[in-house]
Design brief:
The chain is of the alpha/beta class. The protein has 15 helices and nine strands. The protein has a seven-stranded mixed β-sheet. The longest helix has 19 residues. The relative contact order is 0.09.
Length: 326
């Protein structure tokens, strides 16, 4: 019986849960179906960071050949790839090996151009950054994607969904169902399902007017609506809308809206190379000083200070634009 050789190329940021979910699905498949055999290979893409979780396996050098599938795992976007690893991954892809990224594991593949023209599932936290860096990749907010000989999963529990899809494709839906039952998975999710949980779950409330109001806010970040306009759209009085927000979110609509816009601004600030002025305007602030003041009051630092601090902690962040340095 020939074993399917599956490799896991791990960056030092890889979380134990990410790897454990993938390995467990394959181990359970072997247990419930004796004719299914896997040769699992764990390889380290880089030296472990000091104090980080000790990754299993050994250095990747000379060990990528012969894999039927290779998963690249990282839970934070890695820096530039060493030339030797870049060459090895390109050769592996050309040889017909199916390669894919889990969580931030899509970044190395995109750096090499191996995802150009392919759909790739990108975690919602990195959507703006990834789309700006790699415009040739069709970034999606799906749980996972399988596009020809490339596959990807956004991270978290979605890695299990991807592995169940892999089992169903290679060995049939019955085996995937048996594995999900063994792991007490409530249901097998489709890859095209969206990553974000329903808004009412995020809010901790199913009040329809509150949900409608927040959806309106999220859809109108660049040109914010007034509280009166939101109340009119959801067919309640301003006073009633304020009572609903106070009851369920412990803040007035304008305060919640401002926090929503500031959090979006911070996401753009950390993930894109857009200038601070551009970000402020795209999040509904009328001027740079207005944006900077609101940002400092909420986060305790100006947008420039926050961005500089993030970049000093991560040397692989995007370099500042001319507008930012000005």
């Amino acid at each position: 019986m020939t074993a399917h050789r599956i490799g896991f190329l791990l960056w030092s940021s890889t979380k134990p849960l990410t790897l454990a979910l993938a390995e467990e699905a394959l181990r359970v498949a072997e247990r419930v179906h004796p004719e299914v055999t896997y040769d699992l290979l764990f390889l380290q893409a880089e030296a472990p960071a000091p104090g980080a979780w000790q990754l299993p396996g050994e250095n990747w050098v000379g060990q990528l050949e012969g894999c039927d599938k290779l998963f690249l795992l990282a839970d934070e976007p890695p820096g530039p790839l060493p030339a030797a690893l870049s060459t090895a991954l390109k050769q592996l892809a050309r040889s017909g090996c199916m390669v894919g990224g889990v969580a931030a594991g899509v970044y190395p593949l995109a750096q090499l151009g191996l995802l150009d023209g392919y759909r790739a599932s990108v975690h919602w936290r990195w959507q703006d950054d990834f789309s700006e860096r790699f415009p040739k990749v069709i970034a999606t907010n799906h749980l996972f994607d399988w596009d020809r000989e490339r596959f990807s999963a956004c991270g978290g529990m979605a890695v299990l969904d991807l592995l169940l899809a892999l089992l169903a494709r290679d060995h049939g839906a019955e085996l995937a169902g048996a594995v999900s039952e063994e792991l007490v998975v409530e249901r097998i999710r489709e890859g095209c399902e969206r990553q974000r949980i329903p808004l009412q779950n995020r809010l901790g409330s199913s009040h329809p007017k509150l949900t409608q109001a927040v959806l309106l806010m999220e859809a109108n970040i660049e040109e914010p609506l007034t509280t009166d306009e939101i109340a009119q759209h959801v067919c309640v009085s301003r006073r009633q809308l304020e009572r609903i927000f106070k009851q369920y979110l412990n803040r007035v609509p304008s305060q919640y809206y401002l926090e929503l816009r500031l959090n979006k601004a911070r996401q753009l600030l950390m993930q894109t190379s857009k200038s601070i002025i551009q970000i402020g305007l795209s999040c509904g602030f009328s001027s740079g000083p207005h944006f900077s003041s609101a940002y400092r009051n909420f986060f305790g630092a100006t947008p420039r200070e926050d961005r500089n601090q993030r970049r000093s902690n991560n040397p692989f962040e995007l370099t500042p634009t001319v507008a930012e340095r000005a």
